[in-house]
Amino acid sequence: MTFAKIRITVEHTGRHFDVMFNPEEYTLSKDNNFSSQNVPGLSSPLLQFVHGNLQTLDMELYFDTFEERRDVRDESEKVRSLMDIDGDLHAPPILQVSWASLQFRCVLARVSQKFTMFLDDGRPVRARLTVTFNEFVDPERQRSRENNQTADYTKIHTVIEGETITGIAFTHYENPSIWRPIAIANNLSDARSLEAGQELEIPSLPYIDRLTGEVLE
Question: How far from 29 is each of 52, 80, 92, 200, CA to CA, in Å?
């Protein structure tokens, strides 16, 4: 196996050190959370975006002090200690993990150490660390990067005299047949009995085909 060096920098102090890792693989993961709502008459539940989750970076780091005949934990502790609370920050430090085009601002979320070689006195001289870094984006950078604010997906509709729920569905969804989500969101036992001045929540339906009323995959 051919190794390369990846650099880990502590953001608030500028302290950095290099660690060996396998440059043939690392894993970047990202996922989103969606809530589902069952609607009578539809073949699939409605999905609505809730929030995005942190991007994570998973990789293996390698340490070898066999030739120096010294305890490898003196080196692996440099990584493990990045999970400790910093006295100035009152939290673990923010890091920058850098290798070639990989530039990842993060915190260290998980470390698993495996020792694979030992001296006669029991001191470990080789170690493999499986680590997970969680992306760190502070609110200011989040706003500048995504250029949007947290959205409120619910609209309020005030019923006027003679208005029907199918007409309201057409107003907001451009399809009168998509009235059930409005009825469910407002706990309407009889969707045909609306009163003038009544306020209805109109849920957002980003995964509905507004022409056919079908759930989009």
Answer: 12, 22, 22, 39
